[in-house]
Here is the input.
Amino acid sequence: MKIFISIASYQDLLLPITINSAFTNAKFKENLRFGIIDQCKVKLDFSKTKLKDQISYIHIDPKDARGPCWARANAQTLIQDEEYFLQVDSHTVFEKDWDEYLIKYIQTIKKYAQNPVISAYPRGFEIVDFEKKVFRKLQEEDHSTHVMVVDSEKSFKDEYFSMQKGLPSQSKEIYKGFLISAGFLFSESNMIEDVPYDPHLYFEGEETTMSLRLFTNGYDVFHIPRIPLFHCYVDYSNTAKRPMHWSAEEDKDRSIKWTKLQAKSKDRIEKIINQKLSNIYGLGSVRTLSEYKEFTGIDIKNKKIVDEEKAFSFKKLYELDWKRPQKRTFLW
Here is the structure.
């Protein structure tokens, strides 16, 4: 059971840590293959590493980078015959036997759902000593299922875009959700054939539109207990701080500024949601936005939250039996 690991990195000193952690902690190392888009000033050399034959690596000058979605879309083009697809950020560390753990969960869910996607915000880790590769895992003893909801204070803060957040459930059950985390996305590889990343998006709206496209194409998001990896959300040590693509210093030498990419991206998000984009990057035809509203409490087209106990707290969704198929409502 081969796994393709997609990593899009932007000037991230933790990228080699992420690759090494995924490889050394995998139970079946020979079944991994990495697709790396590395947007940095210094190209990495894998020729003397154990995984040299298991990595496809593309180096891009930072001034030519066009944002996270563009990089993730390019990483997906490197997949070959792998059965599973894992997308993570370039500042991630893995637990032992993470590969076996994720495959077992998706195989369990596949007994009841045809097209499952496992996703959520992972627990975090902090850098203690970057030079000595010492890290501190946060919430390490929290093995509960973390679900994803809309941040009630930042819903529709910028047109269709809302901030998201993770909530510990205090339970070790599987839950069917409605949002994805771009920093941890695991599925069978047919997902990227049906719902590939849109290279024309920039950053904001990435997770929102991907969630909608997955849902309308008949895919279901699931949250599982004890996600077996950790994400560096903030580098408080300031020893591996990475520049952001949209910073003024990074943008000064580019022919196309990030603000133009962002403006084009916002127009594209509007086309996606209003079904004016009819290609593979648009919404699917298996389920509707009305069904999404019914399931999630989010009226995305009218920019309204219609059920806070679904959208903000997940309260009503905890009560659902994820093994039962979702009813079709056909509300238009």
